[in-house]
Design brief:
Its EC number is 3.5.3.1. One of its GO terms (molecular function) is arginase activity. This is Arginase. Its cofactor is Mn(2+). It comes from Drosophila lebanonensis. The chain has an 8-stranded parallel beta sheet, with helices on both faces. The chain is α/β, with parallel strands linked by helices. It has helices at residues 2-20, 49-55, 58-65, 83-91, 99-119, 133-143, 173-177, 190-193, 213-222, 229-235, 237-247, 281-292, 312-329, and strands spanning 29-35, 70-76, 122-127, 147-152, 203-208, 225-228, 253-259, 297-303. α10 (229-235) packs across α11 (237-247). It is built from 13 helices and 8 strands. α12 (281-292) links the parallel β7 and β8. It is globular and about 75 Å long. It has one domain (2-10, 30-334): Ureohydrolase domain (Arginase, Chain A), CATH 3.40.800.10. Bound molecules: manganese (II) ion. The site of manganese (II) ion has 5 residues, from loops.
């Protein structure tokens, strides 16, 4: 397959760059990892998204935004489940579906993200369901402890093992990341696999509109900044962006975890837990543009695109929306850009 050939080429390139880099190179390089993980929820199909985005010319689309960006596609993540994790699942987390798979996949992703950041200036993780947000952000935190997280989503994904109604672990990844909730996962060995965690004041949610009662309680109790759709309606996206950036430490790098269901189901219908009344595509683009313009975004996730849900047209619409978000995230300017052209034309 073409992307595997490209992968082999790019891995060679990344190594070369890594070994010859003087350490202060201004080269921008973006690592891409696909994580075809679907066991955080119950619908099949979300595991097809990484390869579908590649077929829809993901790298070419990003390259067209910035021709100086070096893009290194690391292919799709592989993992294997060991007996120790199955034992943990049986003993402590039996009501969570696929806990052992979740942990095995995220452990592998934590290592992969650290490796990619040693070799590249930025990375993009493509899901899969949002359960992989744990490994993607946790890996980022192990490489860059001073990190801020913007979680753009219809859902808060902050359930605990004892508050989740469904047992679907894609509704829990944030609780694995937060310093203040570590104690609730005492059997998960988090201090061993991801000792650096996120302080609650460096997390901002944008786009919420379907939050469980226990999630709302937890967020309120520990004081998490969340701009749900009603806040956006009251003050508008520009103000939400301003408040988000004011809240985050300006010295920190930023991780943007973008769940496609943050967008309204009209522009992103092919997703497992679509909710009406979400962000318009323009609002989504405005938000990621503003984050990008800080020049501090170092890690991005795009998750929950499910090509098996909806019609062919629905799938195309959803993938197109995802690509628009990624384009803006990695440099596309709606007002035009001239940094790459020969400007001698006007004499
Ligand atoms: Mn989510």
């Amino acid at each position: 397959m073409w992307w595997m050939r490209k992968l082999a080429k790019n891995v060679g390139l990344a190594r070369l760059k890594h070994t010859t880099s003087s350490g202060n190179s201004t080269d921008q390089s973006l690592a891409i990892i696909g994580v075809p993980f679907a066991k955080g929820q119950s619908k099949q199909g979300v595991e097809l998204a990484p390869d579908l985005l590649r077929q829809r010319n993901l790298t070419q689309v990003l390259q067209s935004v910035d021709d100086r960006l070096v893009i290194n596609d690391y292919g799709n993540l592989k993992y294997s489940v060991d007996e120790r994790l199955l034992k943990q699942q049986r003993e402590h987390y039996s009501h969570i579906r696929n806990y052992a798979d979740f942990m095995a996949c995220n452990r592998a992703l934590i290592g992969q993200v650290q490796k990619m950041l040693e070799q590249n200036s930025q990375f993009l993780t493509i899901g899969g369901d949002h359960a992989i947000g744990f490994g993607s952000v946790a890996g980022h935190l192990q490489h860059t402890p001073n990190l801020s997280l913007v979680w753009i989503d219809a859902h808060a994904d902050i359930n605990l093992h004892n508050t989740s109604q469904s047992g679907n672990i894609h509704g829990m990844p944030v609780s694995f990341l937060l310093e203040q909730l570590r104690g609730t996962w005492q059997h998960a060995g988090l201090d061993e696999i991801a000792p650096n965690c996120l302080p609650k004041d460096q997390l901002v949610y944008i786009g919420l509109r379907d939050v469980d009662p226990y999630e709302a309680f937890i967020m309120n109790k520990i004081g998490i900044r969340a701009y749900a759709m009603d806040s956006i309606d009251r003050v508008g996206v520009p103000k939400i962006i301003e408040m988000t950036l004011d809240a985050l430490n300006p010295q920190n790098k930023i991780h943007v975890s973008f769940d496609i269901d943050a967008l309204d189901s009209h522009v992103a219908p092919s997703t497992g837990t679509a909710v009406r009344g979400g962000l318009t595509l323009r609002e989504g683009i405005s938000i990621v543009e503003a984050l990008r313009d800080t020049k501090r975004v170092q890690g991005v996730d795009l998750v929950e695109i499910n090509p098996k849900l909806g019609s062919e047209h629905d799938v195309r619409t959803t993938v197109d929306s995802g690509l628009e978000i990624l384009k803006s995230m990695f440099g596309y300017r709606r007002s035009g850009a001239w940094s790459n052209i020969d400007t001698g034309i006007l004499g």
